[in-house]
Amino acid sequence: MELLAYAAFFLTIALTYAIICLGLNVQWGQTGLFNVGIAGFVGLGAYVSAALTTPDAAERIGGFDLPIALGWLAAMAAGGGLALAVGLLTLRMRSDYLAITTFGIAVALQLVFQNTESLTGGAFGMAFIPRPFSGLQGEAFAFNGLNLALTAAVVLACYLLLEHLLRSPWGRALRAVREDEVAAQALGKNPVLLRIQAFALGGAIMALAGAVQAHFIGFIAPGNYLPMMTFQVWAMLIVGGSGNNRGAILGAVLVWAIWALSGALISEVFPADQQARAASLQIVIIGVMLCVILLWRPQGILPEVRSVSRHLGRRNKDIKP
Asked: What residue ranges are annotated as transmembrane (predicted)?
C-alpha cells in the first residue's frame, strides 16, 4: 500500500509538470515563442493562489481563506495578465527580446518571493496552504490517490481544450505564423495579436500548474522556482515532442521519472556529505538523455502531427489527371 501511495504521489507531481509543458507547448510548439522564464510564471501562480487561500496570519499580508478553486482561477488570471503585459511589450520586436525579458522577469519574481517576507514569507516560504481532500491526510494512499485523480482531471481538461484550439482556425493560424509570418500576414492574419494571445494562454496554464502543485504539496518557497525548473520543463517538451500535446504529457512523466530515480540512486550510492555536490549528476543525466533523443528522434518521441485542410484534400480528389 505504501508503494502505491508513493506511485500516486510521484504521478501527481509529474502531472503538474505536464500542465506546465502543455502551456509551453502553446507558446513554443504551436507559435515558436521562446520563453525562458517558465519558473517565474509557475511561481507567480503558486504564490497568488496561496496568498488568497491560506488562513489569516498576523505576520503576513493576505490569508483571505478563500476556496481553492478561486485561488486557481486567480492564479490563471495573474499568469495570463503577466504574459499579456510581457507580450505587449516585446512581441512586436525580435524574438530574442522575448527570451531576455522572460528570463529577467523570472529572476526578478524569484527575488520578490525571497525578499518580501511580509507578503510571501520570504526565504522561509509559505506553509499551511490548504490541500484538496485534507481530511484524508492521515491515509496516504487515499489522499494521494484522490489528488492524483483531481490533477489528472485538470490535465485532461487542459489537453482537450488545447486539442480543440489546435484544430480550430485559430490554431491553424498560429502554425501559419510560426511557419511563415509574411505569408500569414498576406492572408489577412495579425501575427502580433496571435502571438500575444498564445503567450497569454500559455502563461495562464503555467500559473495554474503552479497553483495545483502548491496546494498538493502544502508548502512553497522561493527555492522551488529557480532557473532549473525552466531547464526541466524544456527538456520534458523536447523529449516528448514539441508541437504535440500528448508528447508534452509523455515527456513530463518520463523526464520526471528519470529525475526522481536518479536522485534516489545518488542518495543510495554517495555518502551523505557528498550528496549535495553529487546532485549535479541529475542535470548531467538529463542532458545526456536530451542529446540521445535529439540524435535518435530530433522531433521528440511523439512528434507533431502535420495536418492538411480537408478542403485541400477534397480539391485534390476533384482534380484528376
From this structure: 6-26, 33-54, 66-90, 97-113, 141-162, 198-219, 225-241, 248-266, 278-296
